[in-house]
């Protein structure tokens, strides 16, 4: 699984498998501010704050991605609990999104008046 770039308003977010969830973010913290907070961490690829689609306000969390698992672990150890804009960061490894593919709708057949899925 390689890195994927996701575009945002200003900079593309580089989505890597080595991503930290950053919680307890200040409402005024921007993606660039989050990136700046982690700027001294080795292997920093990208950072983004998540915003509400309707209101445009920060949801109070974001993600920081790294080029390796070791860099992500090092950043977690160094930055968890560090105050950024007056609030302590709450860091953890981000859960990988599992893409669920819905099964094809099963054709139904009538068997003695009851509808049952075909046996595959």
UniProtKB/TrEMBL annotation:
Origin: domain of life: Eukaryota
Pfam family, one: RRM_1
Transmembrane segments: none
Subcellular location: Plastid, Chloroplast
Keyword field contains Chloroplast: yes
Annotated RRM domain residues: 18-96
Name of the protein in its database record: RRM domain-containing protein
Stored Gene3D superfamilies: 3.30.70.330
Keywords per UniProt: Chloroplast, mRNA processing, Plastid, Repeat, Ribonucleoprotein, RNA-binding
Biological process, per Gene Ontology: chloroplast rRNA processing; mRNA processing
Main subcellular location: plastid
GO annotations of cellular component type: chloroplast thylakoid membrane; ribonucleoprotein complex
